[in-house]
Amino acid sequence: MENFEFVSPTHFVFGRGAESKVGTELAHRGAQKVLLHYGGQSAIKSGLIDRIKASLDAAGVGYVELGGVRPNPEIGLAREGVALCKEHNLDWVLAVGGGSVIDSAKAVAVGAHYDGDIWDFFETKQQTEDVLPIAVVLTIPAAGSEASKNAVLNNDELQRKSGYGNNAQRPKLAFMNPELTFTLPPYQTAAGLTDMFAHLLERFFDDVGAVPVTDNLNLSLMRTIRVEAPCVLAEPENYDARANIMWAGMLCHQGLAGVGRHEDWATHGLEHELSAFKPEITHGAGLAVMFPAWMEYVYPENPARFAQYGREVFGLVTTGDPDADALNAIDETRAFFASLGMPTTLEELGIHEEDIEKLLPTLKANKGEPFGSFKKLTMEDAAEIYRLAL
Ligand code: NZQ
Ligand code: ZN
Description:
The protein is an alpha/beta fold.
């Protein structure tokens, strides 16, 4: 078991009506005036933004609005958020939405007391404690950003998508009402399921041996997602299924499912280049394509680990041949993502063979070389994995 540090400062308010407590919980923590940050349409259409405003008004918490965060959020809008925080002396950032809104809120919170450009943090990874506190009303279980230390932003001008990790930007408050996820389109539900499952895979497959306390938690979350996934897709208003998935999404990425391990994160790196190159690509859909390809390429490093995963998550019977067991587990993974309605090839995402070379320079800039842990990958390896995914 490797050394680790772990901090998780988030206060969770979970269940029906959770969002009605936004105003009182913020007021209780001394919030005076917040940036109310949200996405394109869904939270307005559902009336959620109006309910949040009513809750803030009733508690005497002021707000300035900034909507319009797009999926794969762009740094430009976060810069506008920073300017609003400075102009109005805002003291909290309240994100209402999914990973994209929350990540944009994190960038705003980091930049609010910074004199330079917030993209600096994504370039240099410099740490700061001077971050505005963040509250979240989650509307889609997927990225796990409601408790994670990461923000991932696109910079369209540079055609980059980069992550920035800092414990100081973990949300202080997260309101999680599973009913808010009833309105998700099936594709977004499926992409979210894929993303949270991928967060477990990234942590399970690395170059550290068994860490049972961590691994068993991880495997149990994978099994839960596998069982609940068809339920939320078949019955979008099944409260208990939605609730289990919503809480699982948080547990998959707040950190506990990987402590004591190195973790891999090569596949997320490979995907982020896809959604930087084409921001219309949904992160989870990109992962559904890339994960089985990465698995096929790397499994010979440790087929027994894949066999264990196949046994414990998909109930596969051991054949006695570790390579065959590993390949069966990979087939099950691909079939699971396909059963959710996710794409299986890069072509389906509009990425073609001639695009692969264009992805490599920014991949190298973001991840360095070699990258990954289960198998250390060069850019040649990365190109090969993209080709396997075509
Ligand atoms: O913009 P609106 O109209 O709200 O629509 C959104 C958006 O189109 C819609 N949506 C959200 N809640 C809804 C809803 N539609 C109907 N009903 C609801 N209740 O769903 C679409 C996707 O939203 P988005 O926030 O983009 O989804 P997600 O949570 O999957 O976030 C994806 C982003 O998070 C990053 C990804 O790379 C991507 O940029 N990630 C962030 C991580 C982190 N911060 O720790 C880790 C992840 O690995 C990931 O990289
Ligand atoms: Zn992810």
